[in-house]
């Protein structure tokens, strides 16, 4: 999983992720710029690591973050709203940008790097 942090012309932080992980980048960019949001996720990660909980789900404005003992998934809310409509197979590519999975340790490293970038380190 590769990623790059940038600042847009207006100074807004942005995460660019490798193919298949774009949804993670959008989640961090849109939902995790405030210290409070990052702290909630860190607390959940600590509780999972210490066996106090097995999973944790946070529904954001556009996406849901689902953390388990083994993996982290980000999924657009729109994916759950297909309402029984079968999409064309060619549109699976677009779904790939709407959901991403990674290992727990990889997510923690990404979160550490993002937090350092936001802090200007």
Chart the SSEs and their pairings.
Blueprint: E1 3-7, E2 13-17, H1 22-31, H2 35-49, E3 55-59, E4 63-68, E5 71-76, H3 92-96, E6 99-103, H4 104-118
Antiparallel strand pairs: 1-2, 3-4, 4-5, 5-6
The overall pLDDT, averaged over residues, is 88
Q: What series of H and E elements makes up the topology?
A: EEHHEEEHEH
When the domains are counted, the total is: 1
* Helix proportion: 25-40%
Instruction: Give the strand order of the largest sheet, numbering strands 1, 2, ... along the chain.
Output: 3-4-5-6
Indicate the low-confidence ranges by residue numbers.
none
Which terms would index this structure?
alpha+beta, 4 helices, two-stranded antiparallel ribbon, four-stranded antiparallel sheet, 37% helix, UPF0231
């Amino acid at each position: 999983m590769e990623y790059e942090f940038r600042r847009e012309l207006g100074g807004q932080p942005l995460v660019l992720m490798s193919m298949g992980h774009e949804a993670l980048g959008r989640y961090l960019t849109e939902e995790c710029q405030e210290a409070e949001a990052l702290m909630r996720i860190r607390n959940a990660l600590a509780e999972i690591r210490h066996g106090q909980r097995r999973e944790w789900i946070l529904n954001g404005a556009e996406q849901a973050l689902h953390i388990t003992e083994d993996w982290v998934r980000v999924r657009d809310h729109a994916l759950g709203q297909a309402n029984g409509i079968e999409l064309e197979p060619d549109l699976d590519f677009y779904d790939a940008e709407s959901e991403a999975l990674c290992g727990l340790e990889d997510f923690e490293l990404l979160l550490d790097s993002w937090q350092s970038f936001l802090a200007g380190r």
